[in-house]
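User: I'm putting together notes for a lab meeting next week and I want to include a structural view of one of the chains we've been expressing. I don't have a solved structure, so I'd like a prediction I can at least talk through. The sequence is below, exactly as it appears in our construct file.
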Amino acid sequence: MTAKLVIVESPAKARTLGKILGKGYSIKASVGHVRDLPQKSLGVNPNNDFAPRYVVPKGKRAVVKSLKDAAAKAKAVYLATDPDREGEAISWHLVKAAHLDEQRTHRVVFHEITDTAIKEAFHHPRQIDMNLVNAQQARRVLDRLVGYKISPLLWRKVRGRLSAGRVQSVALRMIVERERDIQSFVPEEYWTIEVELSKVTGAKKAPTFKARLASIKGKASKLKIGCQAEAEPIADRLKSAEYFVTGIKRKKVSRQPQPPFITSTLQQEAWRKLHFTADRTMATAQQLYEGLPVGEEGEVGLITYMRTDSTRVAESAVEETRDYIATKYGNDFLPAKPRASAKKVKGAQEAHEAIRPTKVAREPDMVKPYLTSDQARLYQLIWERMVASQMAAAVFDTTNVDIEARAAQDGDIYALKATGSVLRFPGFMVLYSEGKDEAGGEEEGRTSLPPLDEGEQLRLLEVFPEQHFTQPPPRYNVATLVKALEERGIGRPSTYAPIISTLRRRGYVDRKRDGRFYPLELGMLVSDLLTEHFPDIVDVGFTAHMEAQLDEIARGQRDWTGAIREFYIPFEQTLKQASANMVKIKQPDEPTDEVCPECGKPMVIRNGRYGKFMACSGFPKCRTTRSLKTKAEAYQPA
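Assistant: Thanks for the context. Below is the predicted structure for the 638-residue chain, given as structure tokens.
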């Protein structure tokens, strides 16, 4: 027997582990999954408890043979795949595909690739957790049943190369429904009136501030000014009114830092601050986790595992962070007690740690020379969020002032409000401030007010009536779509990136220069068909319920085949009805400015089994076609 064999998913992870484990261990990479359902058949038997038929893809057979040979010579085999359902399933598939001796095969789990974490994991190996494996199997089988059964129906009724996914279809419906809300939105006009005021002093440059009209005393409590004809008379009366301070409320407001990242919040914030897509964020985070060469340190895992639902942080990491804050910023920036976040996302899975740097002392500027631009920027975001999460709150002095304007003409009393907010202690904001989904917000409205006293008279400088229109709901961007999916319990944070990529790749949605998702005509058509014929599949509540069942399977509280059966029996009936009732949709040809080189008739864009292509409008007399992939491709005359 030779060295102990350790199997991981990637060569990068293998290099980092090899540096830590040293001699006596041989580390090999499976390069992802080694078994999966077959590509060209369903691979699931509904008549035999939905038994999946796994195959080793042709490109993985050499990998499996190599691992099998290495395992036969090893003293022991350690499966060190990622610490989640997908990683557990990869380990199980490795055992089955390479016929590993289960007596000599151990599962090791760690959430960061550091000396301490790796040694701890190898001191406490365990068996493969079949509850986690079954949860992954259930998801895979569910997705295969939905995709493999509905997609061919779309090919027959609409056109080829369309797909319907269990979770992607819900996300598509959300984007389409948001677009319909925008299209049907009717803007309503409304007006606001602000006044510019100052203290009544002899100073030439007395400080000024603005107050907004809130109500007219004796009238309806909710002020609504619908048009210019209503706004102008009020503005005229305010111009001749006398202004008095009638109430002042002062208080200190603390703003607490956000907890360190979980997968979904990392994807959201990376979009807001770095404009990274979910795919780009996760690919870069994977590189930071698996390990990169950092100067004299060599291969180093820079962050903890990036697929997590937990904001929990190891006690040792909290202590290290607090020591760093005290040294770098002083004790004023350190709360008396460590912060412990109790935030739990809907349907949170196995208890991991939050995403954080493996060593706070590795400041972003120290590692930046060794990283790509994307790696450095994402590492800085993760590092700053973690350090800020253990810092003191930011403190603001806020002042709310009630003002009365007493009109000379009619004796009406107009109530106005002014608000001021001044940052007194920056706390965590000296390092980090959270991004916003939409423009505006309290950060932009922060102003200071001059010292004022109750009963004090004020000087009017100007009246500003302003026209506005109500706005439709905004289209989703990466951050808001991920947030909406998470809040509704749709999918898992690790699936959001592939969902978004698939919708774009299939031509269902487009992300334009403003960063927002626009449903394309094909996407709206597919979504409407699925909503009409498969209402459960695209129902948010139904899909969230399925996610909850997958969580129960992972905890060992539910049998996975029973959950699939409960889904499949009504689904099969719905599928039969849809196949009989869905009307075949003839998509019209799209005109072009090109002419057929064979007969001179106009060329049009048509939809075929494999997508769009150019064809002569003289068909069937002229059968000239060409691919739309590149203009350089030759015509194919009949």
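A couple of points you could mention at the meeting. The domain at 189-256+394-469 is CATH 2.70.20.10 (Topoisomerase I; domain 3). The longest strand covers residues 242-255.

User: Perfect, that's what I needed.
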